[in-house]
Amino acid sequence: MSALTLSSSSAATLRADAVVIGVAKGPDGPAVAPGGEPLDQAFGGSLAGVLETLGASGGEGEVTKLPAPDGVKADLVLAVGLGDAPEEDGPYDPEVLRRAAGAAARALAGRKKAGFALPAGDEASLAAVCEGALLGAYSFTEYRGKEDKNARNAKGKKGKDGKGGGGDKSAPLAEVTVLGAKSRDKAHKAAAERAEVLAAEVNRARDLVNTPSNGLFPKSFAAAVQSAAKEHGLTVEVLDEKALAKGGYGGILGVGQGSANPPRLVRLSYTHSKAKKTLALVGKGITYDSGGISLKPAGHNETMKCDMSGAAAVFAAVVAAARLGLRVNVTGWLALAENMPSGTATRPGDVLTMYSGKTVEVLNTDAEGRLVLADALTRACEEKPDAVVDVATLTGAMMLALGGRTFGVMANDDAFRTAVHDSATEVGEPSWPMPLPGHLRKGMDSPIADIANMGERMGGGLVAGLFLKEFVAEGTTWAHLDIAGPAFNESGPFGYTPKGGTGSAVRTLVRLAERAAAGDVL
Ligand code: BES
Ligand code: MN
Ligand code: ZN
């Protein structure tokens, strides 16, 4: 990840490759936002006019680059749109700043160091700029060829902007310096450190999601958790296929049995000696979802490495809670399996006996997420946590309902669903509360088992939620996040969100844990 420093230098005096300023959408054209004044001075007070000439309006996400004038130590000025200026000179919405910083950081890929002179006087704004810049300066390079003999032999002249020749224009911005902050101010320092942990953990989840399924499978995912647990002093326990069979985890085994890569259930736990509450997080970790015997048609499986995004978010959130030293216990449960068709795979019509003892008729092997989650939910409830939250790329139906950027929140408790939705809103993750209408349960009635893994097609996301509810212990507060839409960005990057794995739900889970630590929820 990019390095982060706070600096009290001004936009004109920082030595860097680029300096980022904000542009608001004013009534009479673009207006330079607070933080950009020293640059406006260097332009002789004409910066807003120069930006207008270049076509800038100050609209959110708009990026305008211009050469720095004399008297400015950076080479390049990057003006990023902030939309309408807040009323009465109040602070900007943190999410606006986060997105703007992210868009700027993305546009500066290939450069080494940039100063961010955005309006970030208060802690919330400062944190948002730090987070946005670090999240925007992300790229997944693990699978780029380490060596291309042809390219190496054809090195051209390298331009000043790093493009051309051997310059790697896709290397993320290496150093982020946030200006206007006080690096010795305790609150500013704490805000920057929290932003750094959050961004690092979101980026951890993104890396896992982006890793193709031949590089990440249940066993290697579990190994990654073990190594992070060691690094951060967490307790980890891994159930392999033998332990799963001994324990009667029929759901996880039933989904994983068609694959040459056997399933795992991972328990990762962070405890604080003064914790009053315990939060259990359960993640769907299908490292590849082919659909199984109910094979997905071509066009529906190219992105299915992303089907472990819930488990990645849970993993990252537990590590973040630990790194932040939150006064709350957080236990992560990662239900890891690869859903493949083969001679050993579960067949449509097979009946599984789940960890809870309930039997499930598997009508469609592509409805596998609810099967692995069911076992993990039942197991998580045994420890009597104050609440359980599961996170899953569960249904295409949720994408149809809410689109590609918003996750659905379902729960067996209205106040808790609201708390989860509010936590998501606070951190800038779009989400929406969804119901669990009881009448949809009868569509899952099975003639031979306790329940089928499919019901009515209409309201498919809610049907899946109702299935999960059956595996949550009576009296346990539970919420379900269906992140099928926002987990994986199939279109172009925007704001601080890259193409591919997004790290959806990590920041929401951390915020929820913070609120549980503060006694605001549960
Ligand atoms: N992993 C998919 C859901 C999904 C679809 C996630 C698209 C991300 C993008 C899930 O396992 C699935 O296949 N669900 C089925 C359920 C159906 C068979 C009842 C679906 O949504 O079509
Ligand atoms: Mn599926
Ligand atoms: Zn799936």
From TrEMBL:
Superkingdom of source: Bacteria
GO-annotated cellular components: cytoplasm
EC number: 3.4.11.1, 3.4.11.10
Cytosol aminopeptidase domain mapped to chain residues: 364-371
Cofactor binding note: Binds 2 manganese ions per subunit.
Residues reported in the UniProt entry to bind Mn(2+) 1: D289, D366, E368
Main function: Presumably involved in the processing and regular turnover of intracellular proteins. Catalyzes the removal of unsubstituted N-terminal amino acids from various peptides.
PANTHER family: CYTOSOL AMINOPEPTIDASE, LEUCINE AMINOPEPTIDASE-RELATED
Protein name in UniProt: Probable cytosol aminopeptidase
